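Internal QA ticket QA-208
Title: Verify multi-chain structure generation after dependency bump
Assignee: T.L.

Test input:
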Amino acid sequence: MTSIATMNYAMATTEFVAPQQAPQAVRAPIMKVLFGDMLSALLTLGALAVILSLLPAVRWGVTDAVWFTDDPSACRSGGACWAFIQAKLRFIMFGLYPPEDQWRPTVVIALVLGMILISLSPALWGRKLVFAWIAAICAMLALMWGGFAGLSHVSTAKWGGLPVTLLLALLSLGLGFPFAIFLALGRRSKLPILRVLSVGLIETVRGLPLVGLLFVASILLPLLLPPGLDIDKLGRTLAALTVFSAAYLAEVLRGGLQIIPPGQVEAAKALGIPQWKAIQHIVLPQAIQKVIPPLTNTAIVMVKNTSLVMIVGVFDMLSAGRSAAMDPVWPGPYTEAYLFVGLVYFSICVGISHYARWLEIRVKAKDYR
Amino acid sequence: MLSTLLDNRHVRSAALQVLLLVGFASLLYWLWSNTAENLAARGIQVGFEYLHRQANFPISESVLPYDPSDSFGWAYLVGLTNTVTISLLAIVASTVFGLVIALVRLARNPLASAMATAFVGGVRNMPLIVQLLFWYALATTLLPAPRLAFNPLPGVYLSLRGLYIPSVSLGPNGVTFLMLAAAVAVSFWLFARRVPLVARRASAGIAIVAATIFATTTLEPSVSLPALKGLNFVGGLRLSPEFAALMLGLIIYTSVFISEVIRGGIEAVSRGQWEAGRALGLSERQTLFRIIIPQALRVIIPPMTSQYLSTVKNTTLALAVGYPELGLVVGTVINQTGQAIESIAILLSVFLTISIAVSLFMNWYNAHVALVTR
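Actual output:
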């Protein structure tokens, strides 16, 4: 340890010290990393204790589990019953959709995956891709709905499982986005009435729990609309999710609009470009590009939020999993069903967030300012 | 004449706004007239008189005393206090737990921080409602019967019937006593911060009043331990499976998000602050709690506010596991009375009020800790 005196001496002599390489990082031996000091040792012991306490869960989920069986009574041994997931996979995935037509929701899922794969590369983003998405979603809805070209009509009451979850997430984000743009622009507008209305709507929706909005949609909406006009349950739920995502997306977009320097609009004005064109072609594209990471976060939140529609009785993947576990033939494998459904949500959300990270790096690399 | 008027920016924006207002007003009027027509067609009476009628439905557990012969209004209040209680418990517990997770993730121990990272990644990517249902299923199907209950600590039993813990009672005057003690503590804390003479006299006065009340209240402290009697436990405090699943799910889910907020805040404080703390000879812990966290708070508070708010809103998911918070009570009342408009209006206005109140408080607190610059 250097004493104060030598430090003073070193400062006084002001001799030139050549720049030196940082010392090589020495990889500490593993025991030292784990048990080097009191705190590390405590943390290691704590982590080991957590791992040990998870052992019964591993025993339940892996070693004692029944993986393959056609006989539900084999599942009463006390371990997890993964054979149940296998037996009920079609039901959890497609719900009450008529079994002979289940290729249709399968195609819908494949279409969603395909469209997402196509949209991954920012190089392809543009007007064409937007139209492709609109066409694809119309095709998906038509395929689910049926009633043409020999396809039998399947009412939305029979839709269920993963396609419903995916369609609700995609549609609520897709329909919410244009609303969000108007709300975000309205919130930053100089017109007081427009601003008050936008702020009021955004803050009201953000102040309410989604469950409350779903109640409004499923119970109050039929009262609010004229007697002849009936929207089915799925449509009402979608309306609530859309309003919800619009309010949250609007706040994200507002953040993007705030960091666009006012010089951009002034330059457009100086060039004689009308204001709405300047917003459409200059401000919005830049603002959206800036907020891609929080937009993907909102997308993850919305995917997770679709699971709440179970509360108003929409038969999404979670409800399908739950009613699959209610089958009296099986010994009530609720835990397994929820784990499986959670795992599907997990893969979707982790996929989006990894993509977001990749995209963020790419966008940053392209940003030359 | 007309075209020059339309070219005028002020006229144009005024016209646009008037149009907007008229459009909004007519939308409201349209909805209102539809509702009136629908209500008339179904013969539903709108009004809040039903709040005084007898509720006649049970509420399985509550902080306030409740009986099915109480009124609908009281039932709402019982639901609301349940909501507020679980929100407060979840917020406090997940703030503490979140801080721990954040610190473990930032620690240099690779095993511990990897486990914390995996935990955060797993929890934040699954919907809360799935997690709540999972914990509830675990608590109601995989736990043993009372006879074989887990007994991790003396006096603590975990079984299908819920979690039994020892309860401490201060006798009939206990609640008054605790509330008074809390009030005295808060007032002393407030006065200790700024001590002008008047404040000191006032606190002395409060101390005398409090001392007299404390001296006159009689406390009958007692401890009750749960014990197996027949098929179930007797004594102690029972936490129902619904409550336990809800709290576990809410706390785990919220603390993960809070830990991300705290970690972001701590990482936002420049490394130089750590180095300066070390250079001054402060220990790592002193540096963390006296230098880093106070500065990190400025980054942490705004996102923390939204986390707290979403926790309050997330309590409505309790209706998936059947814990009687406000949302569940409102759902039950709608089923019983058909007073949907009033019930939902009450639900929405309660949450809007809570949201606005929490925002105002957190904004005040944010201004309080903000960096003062000249």
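Spot checks passed. The radius of gyration of chain B is 27 Å.
Status: verified.
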